[in-house]
């Protein structure tokens, strides 16, 4: 079974929480602390701190030290792909050890050598096309989502039924 780690799942929750103070599509400016995020999400504070450190190392969040310090997103959720979060926590996306030249004990004899590469590429492409904004909005019923500007214009130009 292909499964993401709990830490990756927590990373998505933490990043979405960091975006809560901003409007749709905006990069948040308010700093949040790891204890505050922990309290809001129910994720243990040491785990939140570990996730934030990894995200800061990959440039997904920025940090400010000191008494008034904390963390904020470096970019909006709409510009952070799920693939980036997975790679920041779990490393490169690879279904098997041999994908992208990884080590495998049977590599020289394996009849499937190189055949997983297209599958892996398709998964990377799919995960790269889904943003954290998409994930955040997935739980909101369509009736409660704000329409995009084009959809709003269509409402006013369509004849009444």
How would you sum up the major sheet? 2 strands, antiparallel
What name goes with the CATH superfamily of the domain at 6-91 and 131-142? Winged helix-like DNA-binding domain superfamily/Winged helix DNA-binding domain
Low-confidence stretches: 148-158
Based on the coordinates given, report the CATH architecture of the domain at 6-91 and 131-142: Orthogonal Bundle
Spatial order of strands in the largest sheet: 1-2
* Large-scale geometry: globular
What is the residue-averaged pLDDT? 80
- Roughly how many Å apart are the termini? 49 Å
Which structural class best describes the helix and strand composition? mainly alpha
Query: What is the top-level CATH class of the domain at 6-91 and 131-142?
Result: Mainly Alpha
Q: Helix share of residues?
A: 40-55%
Query: How many strand units?
Result: 2
Please name the CATH topology of the domain at 6-91 and 131-142: Arc Repressor Mutant, subunit A
What is the strand content? under 5%
Order of helices and strands, N to C? HHHEEHHHH
Using only CA atoms, what is the Rg? Answer: 20 Å
**Tally of helical runs:** 7
Brief account:
With 161 residues, this protein is mainly alpha-helical.
What do these coordinates show?
The protein is mostly helical and 161 residues long. Helix content is 45%, strand content 5%. The chain has a two-stranded antiparallel ribbon with strand order 1-2. Helix 1 packs across helix 2, helix 1 crosses helix 3 and helix 2 crosses helix 3. The longest helix has 13 residues. It is globular, with a radius of gyration of 20 Å. It starts with 5 loop residues before the first helix and ends with a helix.
